[in-house]
DNA sequence: TTGAAAGCGCTAACAG
DNA sequence: CTGTTAGCGCTTTCAA
């Protein structure tokens, strides 16, 4: 079959151990024998068997990544950040797409946590805090993106949803709006909850009495946003601006407004979250909040691998990255500059 | 440390071999002992060590996927198709993002081809046919998406670039255009070449004399399309329509036209390829060619795994999937319906 | 139907 | 500085 370490050793006239040392940059080898071994390795085109190496060294140099939807641009960007950083740190990346299915999420974590990978990154996981803590307690190395978990060993990277949501409300109020509706995402997603919280706090800061009819759920997707806006209209509740908890739902709002003949931003100001690439191309350009997606992916890899290799948990377990409000035409009341 | 097969065997009062048989659905086990073993497995929460299993069985149940850019929506869709089909066939997916870097591509293939994965899928690889054939000759299981390779053992899935490119030209001619420029992608990408070929054949079918000034390279990205259009204008060559070999370049054309005050489609008809999600949202909506991206990903996995598990090469090694021309406002001369 | 034993290819401890 | 030896945890003959 394939050529193995003993073959190299034999041809180079050394022991397998020496070949192993050469391959793993162990210093205790004469540069002379090292050269000889390297020469044979190249001659034979020897490639160490990863399975054997993994078994023996109890390491795989692989990171498992579980994402809700790989073809969603938000997650694709996070993954890109993970890939880049993993590559820089010499790790491979196994990606599992759950299609927003919690069963699959659990299945994948079980599938990988048997020495298939050294650690895992859960991107906005669907499972509960308790479940995640359960895995962490079993000494599985887990990192989280887009959510905060209260567990000493679990590094988390996320953005300050409350903070930027207040900024969104602030911006809308500055544009003259007092009646602002809110479209939330999945009811159980932490992002939904925190953005709602920021929205409410924003209203309060401006002494705008909150009205529950202003809130509708749009499940973070376009269809949901579309339906939510229609429900809002049917309720005959008055509002002049809408804060959608992500750009996808804002897209649905655009569609509904198109059908209903509602002009954006003249009759309804719209703002989303994510800075999805489409937001810049749609007319009118959609105001949004930029999330440092690639940075988030990179940061969690860095932290997780560091923790894995150095054993100890770093003090900066939780990383909160900054988001920026991007004001475009969809929420500008004045003629654009 | 972790609990292993001997622990299960001991507690169940059987040999490790029996536990292994139970786990691998080997029939030669009494249902009674099987039940007992299963019970212990659950009690102990036993998870077979993947590294040991891989080493012993010479299988990993993993597919390596090498893509140029994971956050590009085209590739993200292909990957989604791969993920879904791999999941259905119980395979894991290791994704490597080359960032359009050929060095990285070679590095990754070397990295994974050592029993880290059972087979690999190269999505529009940058390496030459010779290089790919070289790997295939070494008995590495390789599948290709988006390109045709002349090698018995290498399954390929792609679309008929020549065919749909002729349709594109045909459509533009029907709209009254006779002067059609072409924006190609990377010079060495097979897609570029074939789309150019289809464009030329399309012109010929309509007896339109081809002019070399009509062709510019835009490297498949937005900036490239932007610059290519500007060069085209500077050359003072006359053209009323432009066929961009992908939507990204068409986006660059839009930008350049915006700056130059060229109206689409009145002064310039534009059509792209890929049916990127943005194409539907931009104004005017971009005509394009839809590629069955997810289907392509699924098809290659199916074929590759089949070949891997059944040993023999299937006769339908090359799969050519259909693309559809999607006509939108950017290439319609008449007022839209 | 089950068990004993060998070994997948590598690394690391211990000698020398 | 280098070699010998013993496993990593599993599957798979071969015997019983």
Briefly summarize what is shown.
Chains A, B: Keywords: DNA-binding, Transcription, Transcription regulation. The structure is a homodimer of 337-residue chains. Chain A has 337 residues and is α/β, with parallel strands linked by helices.
Commentary on this structure:
- The structure is a homodimer of 337-residue chains.
- The radius of gyration of chain A is 26 Å and the shape is elongated.
- In chain A, strand 8 (241-244), helix 11 (247-260) and strand 9 form a beta-alpha-beta unit.
- Chain A has 13 helices and twelve strands.
- Chain A has a six-stranded parallel beta sheet with strand order 2-1-3-4-5-11, with helices on both faces.
- Chain A has 337 residues and is an alpha/beta fold.
- The first copy, chain A, binds a DNA duplex (16 and 16 nucleotides) through helix 2 and helix 4.
| Structural class category of chain A | alpha/beta
Task: Please give the share of residues in helix of chain A.
Answer: 40-55%
What value does the average pLDDT of chain A take?
92
Instruction: Please give the most extensive interface between any two protein chains, plus how many residues each contributes.
Output: A-B, 43 and 43 residues
Quaternary state of this entry equals homodimer
Query: pLDDT below 50 for ≥5 consecutive residues: which ranges of chain A?
Result: none
- Rg measurement of chain A, Å: 26 Å
* Secondary-structure element pattern of chain A, one letter each: HHHHEHEHEHEEHEHEHEHEHEHEE
Tell me the overall shape of chain A: elongated
Largest β sheet strand count, sense and barrel closure of chain A: 6 strands, parallel
Report the end-to-end length of chain A measured between terminal Cα atoms.
70 Å
Determine the number of helices of chain A (DSSP H or I, runs of at least 4 residues).
Answer: 13
Strand content of chain A: 5-15%
Widest β-sheet, arrangement of strands of chain A: 2-1-3-4-5-11
Number of strands of chain A: 12
